[in-house]
Amino acid sequence: MKVSNTIVVMVSIGDRTSLTNFTFPRLAEWATKFNYSSILLKTGYNPLDRAPHFNKLQVHKILPNFDKYIIIDDDLLMSTNAPEMEQVPDGFIGLCKDAEQRHTEANHVLWTANTGFIVVDKSGLHLLDKAYEKGEYPYRCEDGSGKGIWGPHDQGILNDIVFREERIYELSYKWNYQPILDYFINDQGWYKWMSSKTYRLSYYASLLSPFSNKNKTKISNAYGLHLIRGTYPKFFSRIFK
Question: Which DSSP category does 217 fall into?
């Protein structure tokens, strides 16, 4: 296998072992399979004291001199069958679509990217720096002050930067599939998910069903599950191969 100068970084600030006990071993196994370096980064670099999410945009300050960075949220569970990382053009930021595509108002953002899985080579790191330096972009503009971009903290501003500079590359959704969001957004909605325990249990029951269904199929096709709103990482770790 050829020598790789790629590092896979899972950023996890604070006590997040309830997640990383399940997510990081999977990530490290995938990285080793393709000769990538890997690290669970617990120490951030955040001199401007931004929200913890912004540490993802500055990992290269702590871990310099790599040719490529794959930066991942600590609630993303990799498949044991995930392939080698797809190629992202030099100088571009590779991102997957967010499950929620309805709320971005900014005209220059053609689709809303989720920042839970970021791929960038060294020639694109200045885009992460620019997003970090600018800080929060409003994701709700109910006062009429502008057109928002969906997603708090690092997500809005990184979308703003990469679309303005035309430096975004759309990765396959499979790297960052958000199963719970996908389920309620395309079914009965957020309020139903939050207000009905029966509705939530029906989703989990569908994943345990011996019969084929769309929820099971979508998960089995994924390379990575982003467990947003998922409070049972142990459960997903058992059913996701």
Answer: H
For residue range 191-230, what is the model confidence (pLDDT) as tens digits? 999 999 999 999 999 999 999 999 999 999 999 999 998 8
Given CA atoms 62, 63, 65, 67 in this order, what sign does their dihedral have?
A: negative
Supply the pLDDT for residue 137.
83
Looking at residue 141, its pLDDT comes to 55
Q: Which residues sit opposite 10 in a β-bridge?
A: 40, 72
Q: Rounded to two decimals, what is the model's pTM?
A: 0.93
pLDDT band at 115 (very low <50, low <70, confident <90, very high): very high
The full 3-state SS of the chain, as one line of letters, equals CCCCCEEEEEECCCCCHHHHHHHHHHHHHHHHHCCCEEEEECCCCCCCCCCHHHHHHHHHHHCCCCCEEEEEECCEEECCCCCCCCCCCCCCEEEEECCCCCCCCCCCCCCCEEEEEEEEEHHHHHHHHHHHHHCCCCCCCCCCCCCCCCCCCHHHHHHHHHHHCCCEEECCHHHHECHHHHHHHCCCHHHHHHHCHHHHHHHHHHHHCCCCCHHHHHHHCCCEEECCCCCCHHHHHHHCC
Token pair listed for 10:
């899972």
